[in-house]
């Protein structure tokens, strides 16, 4: 399952996306957020949707059955708990959420892959970590820089991400890069750049699925 972060209609539906939903570990979080954007105005939801279609096509070509958590880039949500439920109900062998970050810290750039830790079930343990490492390794092979400001060696253990906390399938969240960094924004916004991310992520998933 591919989960393109956010959605095109989120910003115009604040009541719906600010509604609190279960986020795991006994906590609640807003249903969803609007996401970030480049300084030039290219939005994260548009990026994640475009990227998801590219990854989907690459995986489909290799015989992998792919489902998405949203049908287009025009709707609202789904909420983070619903996104997790879609993966759980589908029995997905791997769940990959796609995002990009929006840090304004000077020089902050690079990708990181979040996984749920401490794990709340078997899938969140070794399988999710193996998926995270496989995608990380292929992104590094593609020449993509690991994050200079979050996690270590492109990996980040998180206990606060609802979609990961609520997943009973091996799940990771890829923050592809920092949209507020001018150099990285150019890569994230270009067709060639997105294809590079897509190929690396698809290869990482294929490596994990074996
Ligand atoms: Zn995001």
UniProtKB/TrEMBL annotation:
The keyword Hydrolase applies. Residues 84-206 form the MurNAc-LAA domain. CDD domains: MurNAc-LAA (cd02696). Residues 1-40 are annotated as: Disordered. Gene3D superfamilies: Zn-dependent exopeptidases. Residues 30-40 have a biased composition (Polar residues). The keyword Transcription does not apply. Keywords: Hydrolase. This is N-acetylmuramoyl-L-alanine amidase. It comes from Actinokineospora diospyrosa.
């Amino acid at each position: 399952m591919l989960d393109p972060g956010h959605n095109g209609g989120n910003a115009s539906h604040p009541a719906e996306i600010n509604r609190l939903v279960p986020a795991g570990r006994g906590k609640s979080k807003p249903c969803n957020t609007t996401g970030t954007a480049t300084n030039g105005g290219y939005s994260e939801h548009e990026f994640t949707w475009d990227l998801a279609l590219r990854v989907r096509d690459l995986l489909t070509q290799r015989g992998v059955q792919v489902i998405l958590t949203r049908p287009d880039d025009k709707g609202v949500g789904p909420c983070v708990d619903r996104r997790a439920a879609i993966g759980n109900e589908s029995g997905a062998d791997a769940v990959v959420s796609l995002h990009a970050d929006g840090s304004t810290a000077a020089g902050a750039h690079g990708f990181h892959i979040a996984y749920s830790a401490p794990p709340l079930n078997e899938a969140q343990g070794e399988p999710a970590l193996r998926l995270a490492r496989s995608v990380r390794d292929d992104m590094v092979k593609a020449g993509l820089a690991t994050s200079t400001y979050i996690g270590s060696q492109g990996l980040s253990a998180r206990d606060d991400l609802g979609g990961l906390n609520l997943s009973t399938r091996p799940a990771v969240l890829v923050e592809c890069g920092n949209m507020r960094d001018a150099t990285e924004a150019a890569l994230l916004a270009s067709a060639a750049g997105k294809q590079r991310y897509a190929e690396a992520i698809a290869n990482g998933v294929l490596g994990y699925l074996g």
